[in-house]
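Q: Could you predict the 3D structure of Threonine/serine dehydratase?
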Amino acid sequence: MKSPLAIGPRDVEDAADIIRGVAVRTPLLRFPFLDERTGRQVLLKFEGAQIGGAFKFRGAYNRLARIREEDRAKGVVAWSSGNHAQGVAAAARILGIPATIVMPADAPAMKLANTRSLGAEIVLYDRDTQSREGIATSLAQNRGAVLVPSYDDPFIIAGQGTAGIEIVEQAEEMGVEIGQVLVCCGGGGLAAGIATAVKDRLPRTAIHPVEPAAFDDTARSLRTGRRVTVRPGARSICDALLAPTPGALTFPINKALLSEGLAVTDGEVRAAMRYAFEVLKLVVEPGGAVAVAALLAGKAPPSDKATVAVISGSNVDAALFADIVGAA
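A: Sure. Here are the predicted structure tokens for Threonine/serine dehydratase:
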């Protein structure tokens, strides 16, 4: 009987085969000072070391590599505030596929510049008055291009899940038992992929999505059992995690596999970014810092085994970063 879920463990394993030798096997790091600060054993999966500076390259390459050779000249179209944009642009450049990315006009300048430098065409939109999905869909239809969603696509979800395979394998290599994984959550693709991979190999491991407090739609959806939306007027510095509602494909997976959702304030995110820079010597973007923020703020559930926190990316504007890490 076919599973009602968009992907299963085998899909993540297939994605791992596709990206092997192209994507970076990012490090799983341990810092004694962090263990001491949190009173537990912590491992950090640092996706800032991935191509494009975030986990998004995994899913993007897995998706684009599946496009038939005869269809590649028509290109791909995606929408993103920055990390998916860079992942798609990088994958498209490697595979020789033209890429067009619909990005908000107020996206971080570094993400815009990096996407352009990878050869992608950028189409700007106003996130308050225009629909990025509508613009991207229209462009793809007019050009005959392949539409590449940022999370609601089976190949994207499976590609992101390869980080989960690495977490399990690297922890085993270190001789560490994992009790829980904290992973940032916007549309839910990374959480769904990692949960699919980790729960297959370590079924008793809890996977907790972490969101900005104003964008806790996944946590609330998990509690109610149905997809809910972000409250009107919500704002957060976590530009990578501003999806208005869980994905249609990602939520059924997350509903089946995730444990309780956690939420952190922008202040807690800023504190985590400062801690990462000053103590761990890591550059972390706001959306990438939420799992560490949950740990430092004492919001992660207790665990007698190691806690893995996924740092999803390191793409942050220099001015914003300087403002955050320089604050008292």
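Q: Anything worth pointing out?
A: The chain has two domains: 9-54+154-326, 57-147.
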